[in-house]
């Protein structure tokens, strides 16, 4: 049976020997062309949000994070680690993933996610929850699906609620007003080093809110791991 690229359906050219087949089986799910459009984050990154940085090899914080540190309560989330830059190709992929619930796309990111997750080595993994209403709409939490595929065990101690939309507020106020997180079983998160999992870190606002809820519930530290930054 010839395998196809999970993203563009092009046939995967077999350039592997029988000996290496089992080892590569899990890795080779997309073609070289698609893989080249994904921009893997490596080397120097922002110490806060995990964005790719150029040049110097010192510990640095990007401009966005510096601005945020002044304006926002950023202290709750220790740092974010991301696998890939959120480029045009990534945007197209996420559209497919979100609206079609395409598990093939999650499969592409399972291995790189697991690799970073192992490097982080935390006590407890929690996927960023979606609210009950969202879950009813979509049927499932895609981040949980991704973790299943990556064979990462997780807890679901965090709850997310949405309040009424208030259109007169500014965008930032809306983000804070419309959702909040709480921990049902505070004992479970007590003194734990937690890693939150989400698909994208954009402004980080949602992850920061979630981290705040966990720290206030007694967690020792909260970091996050996302596919894209
Ligand atoms: Zn492809
Ligand atoms: Zn940053």
Topology, please?
Elements: H1 18-25, H2 32-37, H3 63-71, E1 80-84, H4 88-100, H5 103-120, E2 124-127, H6 132-138, H7 142-149, E3 158-162, H8 171-178, E4 179-183, H9 186-189, E5 193-200, H10 205-216, E6 221-228
Parallel strand pairs: 1-6, 2-5, 5-6
Antiparallel strand pairs: 3-4
Helix pairs in contact: 5-7
Residues 46, 48-49, 51, 61-62, 64-65 line the site of one zinc ion (ZN).
Explain how this protein is built.
This protein has helices at residues 18-25, 32-37, 63-71, 88-100, 103-120, 132-138, 142-149, 171-178, 186-189, 205-216; strands spanning 80-84, 124-127, 158-162, 179-183, 193-200, 221-228. The protein is globular, with a radius of gyration of 19 Å. The protein has a 4-stranded parallel sheet. Helix content is 41%, strand content 15%. By secondary structure, the chain is of the alpha/beta class. Helix 5 (103-120) crosses helix 7. Bound molecules: zinc ion (2 copies). One zinc ion binds at residues 46, 48-49, 51, 61-62, 64-65.
Cα gyration radius (Å):
19 Å
Mean pLDDT: 83
Instruction: Count the domains.
Output: 1
**Measured distance between first and last alpha carbons:** 36 Å
Bound molecules: zinc ion
CATH topology: Rossmann fold
Helix share of residues?
Answer: 40-55%
| Stretches with pLDDT under 50, minimum 5 residues | 19-26
Please state the structural category. Answer: alpha/beta
Number of discrete helical segments: 10
Morphology: globular
Characterize the biggest β-sheet.
Answer: 4 strands, parallel
CATH structural architecture: 3-Layer(aba) Sandwich
Report strand %: 15-25%
């Amino acid at each position: 049976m010839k395998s196809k690229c999970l993203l563009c359906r092009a046939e995967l050219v077999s350039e592997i020997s029988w000996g290496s087949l089992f080892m590569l089986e899990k890795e080779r799910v997309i073609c070289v062309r698609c893989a080249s459009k994904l921009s893997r984050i490596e080397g120097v990154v922002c110490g806060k949000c995990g964005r790719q940085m150029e040049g110097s090899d010192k510990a640095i914080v990007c401009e966005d994070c510096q601005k945020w540190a002044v304006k926002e309560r950023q202290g709750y989330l220790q740092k974010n680690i991301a696998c890939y830059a959120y480029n045009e190709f990534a945007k197209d992929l996420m559209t497919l993933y979100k609206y079609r619930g395409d598990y093939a796309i999650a499969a592409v990111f399972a291995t790189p996610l697991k690799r970073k997750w192992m490097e982080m080595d935390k006590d407890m993994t929690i996927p960023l929850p979606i609210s009950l209403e969202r879950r009813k709409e979509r049927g499932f939490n895609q981040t949980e699906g991704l973790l299943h595929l990556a064979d990462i065990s997780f807890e679901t101690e965090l709850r997310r609620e949405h309040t009424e939309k208030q259109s007169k507020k500014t965008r930032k106020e809306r983000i804070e007003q419309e959702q909040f997180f709480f921990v049902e079983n505070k004992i479970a998160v007590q003194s734990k080093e937690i890693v939150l999992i989400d698909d994208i870190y954009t402004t980080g606002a949602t992850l920061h809110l979630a981290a705040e809820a966990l720290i206030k519930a007694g967690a020792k530290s909260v970091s996050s791991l996302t596919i894209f930054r």
